[in-house]
Amino acid sequence: PILVEHNLEAPAPALRSDWLKYAAFSSMRDVLSAVWKGYPADEDDAWKIYGILAGLQASAPRVNGLILCVAGIMRILAVTGVAPLLDGCASCGADSSPGGWAVSWLDGGLVCTACLRRNGRQREALIDRGLVEVLIRAAGIPADNLAPLKPPSLDRSIRLLAVLRRWCESALDISPVSLPRLAAALQGAAP
Questions:
Q1: In the chain, what's the furthest Cα-to-Cα distance?
Q2: CB atoms within 10 A of CB 38
Q3: Where are the beta strands (DSSP E) in the chain?
């Protein structure tokens, strides 16, 4: 009921002229709608999520659309208890992975390349430590401080959105249609 006040059908109407930011809020709406369908209504969590959305919407004019999307989705996942663990390998505890990291729902978060090889899963998509840092920082710093956080290059941004999409598909059993739209908007906005 609280979230009805934050019109999910028309995310951030004032941002309609900025397609990247509008797509970011649409992606958050998709994830939140899916979460709310399978998540027991808890008023404290509803207020936390409402606060997340209100804070991101207030800072939206100063923040990159991709960063808004990552911040919103990671924060919603954290409140509902299904965010990936990002502080090291969820399988062995290693805090570094020279070949990159996979983000695995089966393992609960990051998985190092050594564990992937050991488990015969070398073909999983990898992200570098820089993209892991974008996830960590976007999820953890106050919305007012997101503006200086710069998005990665276009190809790395697309990879980051793919990781978020796969995590949502596995953790929430949904396929947020707005994430591919955001990826397309990013590609269309590229110089």
A1: 50
A2: 10
A3: 101-104, 109-112
Whole-Å CA distances, 69 to 27, 95, 164, 181:
7, 26, 10, 12
DSSP state of 49: H
pLDDT at position 15 over 70: no
pLDDT 10s digits, 165-176: 888 888 877 777
CA 153 – CA 25 distance, rounded (Å): 21
Q: Coil, strand or helix: which one is 121?
A: coil
Residues near 120 by beta carbon (within 8 Å), at least 6 away in sequence:
none
Q: Report which listed range, 35-39, 59-63, 111-115, 186-190, is most confident.
A: 111-115
The span from the CA of 66 to the CA of 21, in Å, is 8
Entry pTM: 0.83
Place of tokens 């959105």: 161
* Confidence tier at 41 by pLDDT (50, 70, 90): low
Q: Is the separation of the CB atoms in 25 and 40 below 8 Å?
A: no
Mean pLDDT of the chain: 81
Write the burial class of residue 6 (CB in 10 Å: 0-12 exposed, 13-18 middle, 19+ buried).
Answer: middle
